[in-house]
């Protein structure tokens, strides 16, 4: 009896997240799976006469289960990554040079888009369409400002939008005009939509190309897998890449509730697909957001900008309609993943899932609430009791903290983003990024969960009692995300039989100062035992 | 460098269908794939120090690539397999005993269905409802006669159908009645629909259970894979079995053109799934059948039973609608599989596929015509030129021969079921059964392609110039079917890297008298290197 070994990883500082053997120094991998973890001599003995084809010396790097992001909009992010990155550029000419370069490699007539320009960095001069016309006369150009409140376009873009001196103003926006009344090429707030609505939707080829370019960037941050909320074109693009053998990131696709009638008609079931790409839960939008004070709350927002004292946010779906559609999804063999930001939305999500568990579901399906930014104390305990996954994005806690205190007030903010309380309660917790709303980088997510501060920010933690240990934070991005996909028997731990999805970090982030976590280099990312990123 | 081996198969008479090494004696298998084929000593050397976990001595049996049926209705067949099999029973009491036994193990109130009873075998006495009432008073019973023109039901079935002495007769049918005018329980022809319409559709659990029971029967005939035309419930049942690890038959699912809008809406692509279950082409129905003289022909049917001299059959889809839907399917990333029986239908199918190849498809998609029972000489050559798959069911040639000569006449029949001519032309040919219309058994299909006679029939071959060699027939059920699924790089030959799907036969059907082919025992069926049927 013998055992083929494809790869031995040794000289590694391994955190297995497997209770049977929490630490190891070496691994043996065959056919994309881990076949053994142990000391160097354990693995050497296993190897024996039967020399492995390949070995990887990690030179002491720290190896953890492959990072897995439980909440992305991957195709959307990929498309944004294709746009010109103008953030931090402190000279107007530099921006124009980048536009000129981009125009040279882009087919004439195609839109050039970019984002992140900041006129404050070059002396507060408003740019105009003529500047863009000089460097890109034959491409429509639309560049979003850093704060996303200004759109800078060229003459061709204005022309395609049918925007002239005669165009009336838009409620809640402004078409900036020169002394003669001609649009200058700067559109403010709601006026931006005049141009946005004429920019064509990307083709499937463009989405496919964008995802292909974005994959290495995801692996560079240590990611081996994502859950991604996709529309039909994004899902199709992922399938095309998979069919060509180009998909190196395990991707659980969540389609929106728009898909239910079609999934029903076809008889599709959650899980259909393969180990690289498969259908996961159905995504619902139950309420709005904290930032826009549209999250569904039991008590009114504080400091509501419209001076209302009774703004409890809103449900984006009628509760009865939500229940009806949730039932359809579950009857069709899909779990549900429900966007809930406010405590009232969380209550409804929990109520409906528990009702479905009683009335419809044998318990086979995994149901989850996304974001879970604030819940009442009594509801917090229901995640554990009913095995409902809390799918959270730790970076939100750090970017939202001031907004949370402003609109929820201190007492309510104290029960927001309660990752520690959820873990103590025994809730299944999965972590993700919500990219492109936040950075895709899971190291930033781990740092946020551990520190509850923004990088480089000299402030105390946001409710420090909710800070996690490094191990707890990583577990959310590994086992937790795998569990949310119903996939914890093959991913999320380093143990025999598990898929060989692994992330190696240059430093041991369990012991380095927490501020170093976000910059800790990833040295190797492996998916199914194959390196998809290597920088040893 | 070493190589794990899971299984060595030796002492086998192997036909590899791989031109590099057509014959072998032994195989090495690892991880579900063939890693080597050769002489016993070749494989022994490969094995070396590294003893395989398992060996299988085939005792001289003949091993061929796993049989693959390119045209089944597997879920439908599975459901029929659940019904009482009454064919050949020569005593009325024996039929009643079987119904009584079945009633004992079936929940009260559930329908008991059966088929194949033949009153000629028990002396021509018409049975009646009272006989069934005695053995199954609390189950509605519906038993179809062998010729499918009579339905024998019990009183409960009549009651559920609302069928009484007052029910008016049905056009083209007869409700048999006794002297008092009461229905006797025998319904003829169109009157059968009065009961059929009240029999509930099977639940997904029933379909799932039926498929699970049918899988061993498929493997017993040597099948390792099928293409199956399914509706939503059948597809869902296959997915449920796959999710439970119970699907042992590789299944390429063809959904009907009803699915196109849903596939488009979701962005699903052909090929989505895994190596056991995946989405294949979209199935269209273009014309009728030979037996009902509804196949679309260029020239009228001979001897049309309605005494028309201008019956050229019919298109079941408007040609423009067919083209429009075919274009939608292909734009959505699906090849098309088109039911064409008549030569006019074949022409339209070829025309539209070639047009789509020019206008839409990069050549990546595999398109196919199903049945291809008669084509004009000039159209026959287009399959090869345009790489359009002719997906044929050799058993049809032998069961249809008299009908073909009657309704097409001798000259046209001479260009029907032209498997030899198609192969000579270079056409890609795939073979299947059309189960449950014909037996699922591929040995019967191979025999039909080779002999062009029915089993046990003492007649010359039906146009003997179209008879195939055994190797050609097997190739249609192996490589040909794999090619039709776009899957010839991993299935259909015995060669390193191919999936270890294999069928072992007790005799060498390449040399046995052809009449022995249908009864040649299958001794082993392997899927992915694992035995799914074993009778050594």
Automatic annotation (TrEMBL), chains A, B:
CDD domains: YtcJ_like (cd01300). Gene3D superfamilies: 3.10.310.70, Metal-dependent hydrolases, Urease, subunit C, domain 1. GO terms for molecular function: hydrolase activity, acting on carbon-nitrogen (but not peptide) bonds. Pfam families: Amidohydro_3. This is Amidohydrolase. Residues 55-533 form the Amidohydrolase domain. InterPro entries: Amidohydro_3, Metal-dep_hydrolase_composite, Metal_Hydrolase, YtcJ-like.
């Amino acid at each position: 009896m013998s055992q083929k070994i494809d790869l031995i990883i040794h000289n590694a500082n391994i955190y297995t997240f497997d209770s049977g053997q929490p630490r190891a120094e070496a691994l043996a991998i065959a056919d994309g799976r881990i076949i053994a973890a142990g000391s160097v001599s354990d693995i050497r003995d296993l190897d024996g006469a039967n020399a492995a084809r390949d070995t990887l010396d990690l030179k002491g790097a720290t190896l953890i289960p492959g990072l897995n992001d439980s909440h992305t909009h991957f195709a959307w992010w990929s498309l944004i990554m294709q746009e010109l990155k103008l953030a931090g550029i402190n000279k107007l000419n530099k921006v124009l040079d980048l536009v000129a370069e981009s125009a040279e490699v882009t087919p004439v007539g195609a839109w050039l888009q970019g984002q992140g320009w900041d006129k404050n960095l070059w002396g507060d001069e408003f740019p105009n369409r003529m500047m863009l016309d000089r460097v890109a006369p034959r491409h429509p150009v639309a560049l979003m400002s850093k704060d996303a409140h200004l759109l800078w376009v060229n003459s061709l873009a204005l022309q395609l939008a049918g925007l002239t001196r005669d165009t009336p103003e838009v409620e809640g926006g402004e078409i900036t005009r020169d002394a003669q009344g001609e649009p200058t090429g700067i559109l403010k707030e709601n006026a931006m939509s005049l141009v946005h609505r004429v920019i064509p939707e990307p083709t499937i080829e463009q989405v496919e190309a964008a995802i292909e370019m974005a994959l290495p960037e995801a692996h560079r941050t240590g990611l081996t897998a994502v859950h991604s909320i996709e529309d039909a074109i994004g899902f199709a693009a992922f399938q095309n890449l998979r069919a060509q053998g180009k998909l190196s990131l395990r991707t659980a696709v969540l389609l929106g509730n728009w898909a239910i009638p079609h999934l029903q008609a076809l008889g599709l079931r959650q899980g259909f697909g393969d180990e690289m790409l498969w259908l996961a839960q159905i995504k619902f939008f139950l309420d709005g957001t904290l930032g826009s004070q549209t999250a569904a709350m039991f008590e009114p927002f504080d400091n509501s900008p419209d001076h209302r004292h009774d703004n409890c946010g809103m449900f984006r779906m009628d509760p009865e309609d939500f229940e009806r559609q949730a039932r359809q999804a579950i009857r069709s063999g899909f779990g549900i993943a429900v966007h809930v930001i406010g405590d009232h939305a969380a209550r409804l999500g929990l109520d409906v899932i528990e009702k479905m568990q009683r009335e419809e579901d044998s318990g086979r399906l995994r149901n989850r609430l996304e974001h879970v930014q604030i819940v009442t104390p009594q509801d917090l305990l229901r995640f554990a009791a009913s095995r409902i996954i809390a799918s959270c994005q730790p970076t939100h806690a750090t970017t939202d903290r001031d907004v949370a205190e402003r609109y929820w007030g201190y007492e309510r903010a104290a029960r927001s983003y309660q990752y520690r309380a959820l873990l103590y309660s025994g809730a299944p917790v999965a972590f993700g990024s919500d990219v492109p709303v936040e950075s895709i980088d899971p190291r930033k997510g781990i740092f946020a969960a551990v520190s509850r501060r923004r990088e480089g920010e000299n402030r105390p933690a946001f409710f420090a009692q909710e800070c996690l240990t490094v191990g707890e934070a990583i577990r959310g991005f590994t086992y937790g995300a795998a569990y949310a996909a119903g996939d914890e028997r093959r991913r999320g731990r380093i143990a025999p039989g598990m898929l060989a999805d692994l992330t190696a970090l240059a430093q041991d982030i369990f012991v380095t100062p927490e501020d170093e976590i976000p910059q800790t280099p990833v040295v190797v990312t492996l998916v199914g035992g194959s390196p998809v990123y290597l920088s040893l």
